[in-house]
Design brief:
Length: 195
């Protein structure tokens, strides 16, 4: 009888040790999660402080200040060099280069945050076959595409179109939509280019 009691006591000690190990693992996991949550809270507090400063700045504007007074995109222009070019020295045009110029209320080119959608059309084809290609450029990509020359500033977008325009002889249409992230407005312009 005494042996049975000793065996039961030993089993209880082993079970308790196993439970203690599982509990320690759970406690460690919970501590790690707590650290991650605390880090996220600190980051959120920092972002909140930045946003509060921004709000205070905006609240400090005089009441007569209007959204119309802030420089924003009012239209877009497509640069005169928008067209098809030979890039790979193959003897045929294989690259579409699009120059997009956001313009403010004074007619000046401005670098504006936004996205650009480009479509290439062959309007001589049936409606279901006329869209040759389309591309999307997000704001992260777009900000690195701003280029300036002596007389002009614009976004320069480049697309490989070798497989889309092979054998084409009719003029093509480039349609560009610029979505301004400040106002949420979309501006569209198009241009005819020759293959």
């Amino acid at each position: 009888m005494r042996t049975l009691g000793t065996i039961l006591a030993g089993c209880l000690l082993v079970a308790a040790a196993g439970c203690q190990s599982a509990i320690e693992k759970e406690v460690k996991t919970l501590r790690d999660e707590k650290k991650q949550l605390q880090s996220q809270v600190e980051q959120a507090k920092s972002e909140n402080e930045q946003l509060q400063k921004h709000v205070q700045l905006l609240l400090g504007l005089k009441p007569e200040t209007k959204l119309e007074d802030i420089y924003s995109v009012r239209q877009i222009n497509l640069g005169r060099y928008t067209g098809l070019y030979e890039k790979n020295k193959t003897g045929r045009k294989d690259t579409l280069i699009v120059y997009v110029q956001p313009v403010d209320q004074n007619g000046d080119a401005i670098k504006a945050a936004g996205s650009v959608d480009v479509q290439l059309w062959d309007l001589s084809r049936k409606e279901t076959e006329s869209l040759l290609g389309e591309w999307h450029t997000n704001p992260g990509e777009l900000k690195g595409l701003w280029v300036g020359t002596l007389m002009n500033y614009n976004y320069r977008l480049t697309f490989d179109v070798a497989d889309k325009i092979e054998g084409l002889k009719d003029p093509l249409t480039v349609k560009v939509t610029f979505t301004d992230y400040l106002t949420g407005k979309a501006f569209t312009e198009q241009k005819v280019v020759k293959p």
